[in-house]
Amino acid sequence: MHYISTRGRSAAVDFEGALLAGLAPDGGLYMPNAWPQLSPADARALGEKPYAEAAASVLSLFTGDAIDQSTLLAMTKDAYGGFHADDVAPLVQVGDDDYILELFHGPTLAFKDFAMQILGRMFDAALARRDEHLTIIAATSGDTGAAAIDALKACSRVNVVVLHPEGRVSDVQRRMMTSVIAPNVRNIAIDGSFDDCQAIVKSLFADEKFVNDVKLGGVNSINWARLAAQTVYYFTAWAAIADGDEAVNFVVPTGNFGDVFAGYAAKRMGLPVATLGVAANANDILHRAISNGDYTPAGVRPTASPSMDIQVASNFERLLFEAKNRDHDALREIMENFARDKGMKIDDQTLAAIRKDFVSCAVSEAQTLAEIARHEKATGALIDPHTAVGRSAAIRLREDGHLKGKTVTLSTAHPAKFPDAVKEATGKNPDLPDFFSDLFDRPEEMVKATASEDAIKSIIRDAFGTA
Ligand SMILES: Cc1ncc(COP(=O)(O)O)c(C=O)c1O
Ligand SMILES: N[C@@H](CCOP(=O)(O)O)C(=O)O
């Protein structure tokens, strides 16, 4: 197994190369050169195993020789042993054919923990063996940052710098990041949007000298290892509910297109997935792209589901690469034109290829809050606004005939991360788990910066010099 850049101008690397690089040197995203395969029988057998064992089995298809099987299993046991649910990713039935996959029982209460906890352990092992250090840069709209900091704060060979859009994450999300005061952690509040943060991250990777000076790495979903780890719960969820080889739908609240692309990867690996539902909030660029080919950013609108307040979705590049039959030149031209024109019209053939696997739905603010309230009335349980976007989309896509049969909606965050929206919708205050009961008493540390590449470079150089 090796990894190729979508843009075709970087050398292929092994799993460890993709893990440590994050983004390919040509600005492209790494992809496996071919999809590893699992038969439905293999997938079903995963359902019999504890989550950590299933994760090691699936991940080994991506890691190849980079990590031996017993080390990988020790890593997954350690990573998922810290989750606060026995099942790690519990599946809850909410209707005849409807399920919610709870992905918020990790240490920072969002689905990001599934990949980040394992990445931290992989970084530790690879950097120790190479006797190297890394400076991780992450852009966050709230959840990736907390998960990265939690997973990496104890890594002696990793520094971690997190950029978040000032005032555009919830107080709980911010405090989960800024209350971790450690010598290798820096939080930077950017005067701008998540897209500005993400653009800065990509521009840092484009500066070869800076990348080499500080040994830059990334843990956003540009990093293939993130998506590899996120494929696992599609397999375990399918195995828990499918009869025989029955195909199941997944609906995924979507921002950077990473989580839903992990579902696509699982499908390409042989998992019987019928349709992948892309659930967008009022920042509906992905819905516009899939429904009518219009992939044009329209300015970010703050919503009750702030982690999905994203316009330029990194992983859409991976989807276009697939839809273009992995034609590097065609993909590079598309991405260059997109950068120049600040938007794109997806051609009919490419759109038809995308629609073989995906449908989409945009959910308004009113619909999001209404779904939190409806769900609480129907089940007595609170859901977070991102999950509500997913559930609202799943209900509408089924009513409109786009989804038939069993459907799993990914529940991506704990409701207590977004108490204001939950309270507004239901009148109820979701409680943080005990291990965060003192979150609002903890001191915070962060610096503020303008949305400028140079400002961030100088903060990183001052903090960590050459790694
Ligand atoms: C809670 C939550 N739900 C959904 C998403 C969207 O996931 P993705 O960016 O992988 O599409 C995010 C952020 O990415 C998130 O933090
Ligand atoms: N919603 C994310 C945005 C970054 O997404 P990633 O999956 O590419 O890391 C966040 O919460 O930070």
TrEMBL record:
<protein>
    <recommendedName>
        <fullName>Threonine synthase</fullName>
        <ecNumber>4.2.3.1</ecNumber>
    </recommendedName>
</protein>
<dbReference type="Pfam" id="PF14821">
    <property type="entry name" value="Thr_synth_N"/>
</dbReference>
<dbReference type="InterPro" id="IPR037158">
    <property type="entry name" value="Thr_synth_N_sf"/>
</dbReference>
<feature type="domain" description="Tryptophan synthase beta chain-like PALP">
    <location>
        <begin position="102"/>
        <end position="345"/>
    </location>
</feature>
<keyword id="KW-0028">Amino-acid biosynthesis</keyword>
<dbReference type="GO" id="GO:0004795">
    <property type="term" value="F:threonine synthase activity"/>
</dbReference>
<keyword id="KW-0456">Lyase</keyword>
<dbReference type="InterPro" id="IPR036052">
    <property type="entry name" value="TrpB-like_PALP_sf"/>
</dbReference>
<feature type="domain" description="Threonine synthase N-terminal">
    <location>
        <begin position="2"/>
        <end position="80"/>
    </location>
</feature>
<comment type="pathway">
    <text>Amino-acid biosynthesis; L-threonine biosynthesis; L-threonine from L-aspartate: step 5/5.</text>
</comment>
<keyword id="KW-0663">Pyridoxal phosphate</keyword>
<dbReference type="InterPro" id="IPR004450">
    <property type="entry name" value="Thr_synthase-like"/>
</dbReference>
<keyword id="KW-0791">Threonine biosynthesis</keyword>
<dbReference type="Pfam" id="PF00291">
    <property type="entry name" value="PALP"/>
</dbReference>
<comment type="similarity">
    <text>Belongs to the threonine synthase family.</text>
</comment>
<dbReference type="InterPro" id="IPR051166">
    <property type="entry name" value="Threonine_Synthase"/>
</dbReference>
<dbReference type="Pfam" id="PF24857">
    <property type="entry name" value="THR4_C"/>
</dbReference>
<dbReference type="InterPro" id="IPR001926">
    <property type="entry name" value="TrpB-like_PALP"/>
</dbReference>
<dbReference type="InterPro" id="IPR029144">
    <property type="entry name" value="Thr_synth_N"/>
</dbReference>
<dbReference type="InterPro" id="IPR000634">
    <property type="entry name" value="Ser/Thr_deHydtase_PyrdxlP-BS"/>
</dbReference>
